[in-house]
Amino acid sequence: MTRQAVAAGVSALALLTAAPALAEIKIGASLAVTGPAAFLGDPEAKTLEMLVEELNANGGINGEEVELIVYDDGADPNKARTFATRLIEEDEVVAVIGGSSTGATMAMAPLFADYEIPFISLAGAVVIIDPVQEFVFKTPHTDRMACEKIFADITSRGMTKVGLISGTDGFGASMREQCLDVAEASGVEIVADESYGGSDSDMTPQLTNIAATEGIEAVVNPGFGQGPAVVTRNYAQLGIELPFYQSHGVASDEFIKLAGDAANGLRLPATPLLIPDQLAEDDPQRQPVQDYIAAYEAAHGEKPSTFGGYAYDAFHLLVNAIERADSTDPVEIRDALEATEGHAGVTGVYSFTPEDHMGLDLSAFRILEIKDGGWTPVEE
Amino acid sequence: MAGQETTTSAAPVDTGRDAYLQNKVTRRRAIGPGLGTFLVFAVLVGLGALIFPSSYFYRVGTLVWINTLAVTGIVVLLGYVGLVSLGHAGFFTIGAYTTAILPNYGVPSPLAMLSGVLLAGLLALVVGRPILKLSGYYLAIATLGLGMLIWMVLSKEAWLTGGPDGMTVSGMNARNLFKMVGLNLKSAEAWYWVAGFTAAIGAAIAVNLAGSPSGRSLRAIHDSDVAARSLGIDVARAKSRAFVISALYAAVAGGLLALANGYITPETGGFMHSVEMVTMAVLGGPPRCSARWSAP
Fold first, then answer.
1. Does B262 touch chain A (CB under 8 A)?
2. CB-based contact A85 B188, cutoff 8 Å
3. Which residues of A fall within a CB distance of 8 Å from B165?
4. Could you say which of A165, A264, B30, B66 has the lowest number of CB atoms within 10 Å?
C-alpha cells in the first residue's frame, strides 16, 4: 500500500516536472528588492516587470512570450548565489539580469561561466568586468569613469589642484580609490584627501582643512546617501567659493531637495535620464530616455531613477541580442550580446567587444550643473 | 538522540542476549557515542543526495550543513555551558577571510583555512579569559562588541579585504577532490558532500565532548558556577575552553562557506549573522546536538 502510494506520488511528481515545454523564453533576475540596497533593487525590479509586460503585449521576442522570474536576494551574496543556482537549474532561464550590488554580482559570476549562461549585472564596480569574464556583462558605468569625467571637466576649466572629501561607505571608498588612481593620467593633482563617516552630521572641520590647503582649486565629493547633502550644506555655510563637484551617486532629485539652495552651482556627472527635455533632437539617447520616463510614470506614477535605467538597458540589450541571435541558446545569445554595436540606452550608447563587457565611454556621462533647484547640462 | 544509551526495557531472557548487551556496552565505551551521531549524519547526508533533483537543492543542502557546523559550536557554548555569544559571526568571518586572503600570498587553500581556524581559536583564547568573567547580558554585550570590531576591521581595511564590496576567494574547488578519486561531480554536489562530511565529524566530536569528563564539567558549570567550583572544576579554564572550541567550529564553517561561495563580503560577519546563529541554536534546542534544522 505504502509502496503504491509512494509510486503514485513519484509519478505525479514526474508528470509535474515533465509538463510540456511552453514556447516561452525565460529570463531570470536576482535583485535586492528589499533590504539595505532596496533603493537599487526596487526600481530595477519594477522596470523589468513593466518591460516584460510591454514586450509580451507587443508579441514578445520573435513571436515567443517572455517570462520573467525575479528573486529578492536582499543584496546578500550568499542568497544571490543560491538564487542564481535556482534560476539556472530549476527555472532553466536563458539569461540572468541582476546583482544590484557588487557583492551579489561577484558571488554569482562564477556560476555563469560554469553553466554558460549570459549574465548582465546592474552593479557598479570595475572588478565585475576587469578582468573580462566571458559570460558576464554590465550596464552601469564605473566610478572610475565618473572620476575621469569630473577631472576632464576640471582641467577644461583650466584647473589642476583638487581636494577630495570622501565617504567611508563602500561607494565613497571605492570611488576615492579610483579617483586617486586616475588623477595623474587625467592631469590633476590631489592636494587634499579627507574622509567622513556615512552618518556624520557635520563635515565643517574636514572642509575647513580642505579650504585652507594651499593652491587648491576645486573640491570633489565621492559619496552616497545623506553624507554628500551635509557636505554640500556645510560647503555653503563656510562660504567656500571653489568649484564643487559631487558624484553620480547623488544624481537624483532627492539630493536637490536634501541639500536645498546650497546645491546651486555644483556640478556632477550623471546620465541623461535627469534632463529628458534638454537633450538635443539628434541625441541618440533622447528617444530611449523619453520612452522610459513616460512608460515608468504611466506604470508606477513616479519618476524613474538612474538605477532603474540600468535595468532598462540590460533588458533591451538582452532582448535585442535574442532577436539578433534568433535563438534561445544561451551561448548564441551571449555571442550576439557581445556583438552589440551602438545600442542607444538611457545610460549611454553601448558597444560591447570581447575586451569590453561594459561597452560605455565617457560620453555616457553628462556633466550637469544645479541651477535654481534644477539640472542644466554643461556645454562641453 | 543518537548516541544515548538505549537499554532495552524487557528483562534479558537468555545469556546470549546478556553477552550481546555486555559486548555492545563495551564497544560503545571503546568508540564513544560520537560514532552513532556520525552515522546518523552520514545517513541524513546520503538521504539528501538520494532525493535532491538538482544542484539548487545541493546548494541549499550545503548551506544547511555549513550552518549546522557553525551552530554546533554555539550549542557547545550555549547548550553545554549556558553562555550566550553574539559575536560568533566574527569568528566565522575570520575563518572565511583568512581562507580568502592567504591564497593571494601563495598559501594553499586548505592550509589557509587551517590558519583561519587557528587564528580564530587564538583570538578566542586571548579575549575569552577577560570577557568570560562577565555573565548574562554583560557577556552578550561584550561578545557583541567583539563581533562588531571584527566586522569593522574587515569592512574598513579595503587594501586587504576589499572593503564593503568583499573579495573573491581564489583557490580550491571541492570538485577537484573528487576528481582525484575519479569521480566527476558538479561543484554544488561536491561541496554538499564536503560540507555534510565535515558537519558529521563536527557533530560527532561535540557529542563525544558532552560525554567526556570535560563535557560533564561544562554541564556542571551550566547548573551552577559555585557548585562546579566546589567540586574542584577550574571554572574559568573550562569556560575559556568551551569558548575556543565554539570559535573553532564557527571558523571551520566560515572557511567552508568562503570556499563554496567563491566570494565573501563583510556582511557574513555582521551582527545579524551572529543573531541568526544563536536563533538557529535556540530553535533547535540548545542542550542537545540533534535537530538544528535551519535552512538559510
1. yes
2. yes
3. 102-103, 106, 125, 127, 170, 174
4. B30
Nearest to B267 among A76, A125, A169 (CB): A76
DSSP for A295-364?
A: HHHHHHSS---HHHHHHHHHHHHHHHHHHHHTS--HHHHHHHHHT--SEE-SS-EE--BTTBSS---GGG
Residue for grid cell 508606477: A300
Q: Out of A82, A90, A174, name the one closest to residue B163 (CB).
A: A174
ipTM comes to 0.73
Nearest chain A alpha carbon to B296? A79
The answer, yes or no, to whether residue A8 has pLDDT greater than 80, is no
Contact A17 B53 (CB under 8 A): yes
Q: How far is B63 from chain A (nearest CA, A)?
A: 9
Q: What is the DSSP letter of A22?
A: P
Residue A198 clears pLDDT 90, i.e. is over it: no
pLDDT at position A21? 44
Each domain of chain B, given as residue ranges in start order, spans 33-284
Per-residue pLDDT tens digits for B158-217: 788 887 778 888 877 778 888 888 888 888 889 999 999 999 999 899 988 888 888 889
Q: pLDDT of A104-116, one tens digit each?
A: 998 899 889 889 9
Supply the pTM of this predicted model.
Answer: 0.80
CB contact under 8 A, B263 and A106: yes
CB contact under 8 A, B261 and A81: yes
Which of A79, A90, A169 has the CB atom closest to B54's CB atom? A90
DSSP 8-class letter at A70: E
Contact A77 B188 (CB under 8 A): no
The identity of residue A123, as a single letter, is: A
**Domains and their CATH numbers in chain A:** 22-141+288-362 (3.40.50.2300), 144-276+365-377 (3.40.50.2300)
With a CB-CB cutoff of 8 Å, which residues 48-107 of chain B face chain A? 53-56, 59-60, 63
Kindly report the average pLDDT of chain A as a whole number: 88
Q: Give how far A230 is from chain B: nearest CA, Å.
A: 22
Q: Is the pLDDT of residue A350 over 50?
A: yes
Per-residue pLDDT tens digits for A40-95 = 899 999 999 999 999 999 988 888 899 999 999 988 888 899 999 999 988 999 99
Positions of chain B with pLDDT under 50: 1-14, 25-30, 286-296
Q: What is the pLDDT of residues A318-345, one digit of tens each?
A: 999 999 998 889 999 999 999 999 999 9
Instruction: Give B149→chain A minimum CA distance, Å.
Output: 16
CATH architecture assignment, domain B33-284 = Orthogonal Bundle (1.10)
Q: Averaged over A113-132, what is the pLDDT?
A: 89
Task: Locate the chain A residue with the closest alpha carbon to B259.
Answer: A107
Contact A77 B261 (CB under 8 A): yes
Comparing B31 with A125, the larger pLDDT belongs to A125
| Residue A92 to chain B, least CA–CA distance (Å) | 11
Minimal CA separation from A155 to chain B, in Å? 29
Cell numbers 552601469 correspond to A140
A330 touches A117 (CB < 8 A): yes
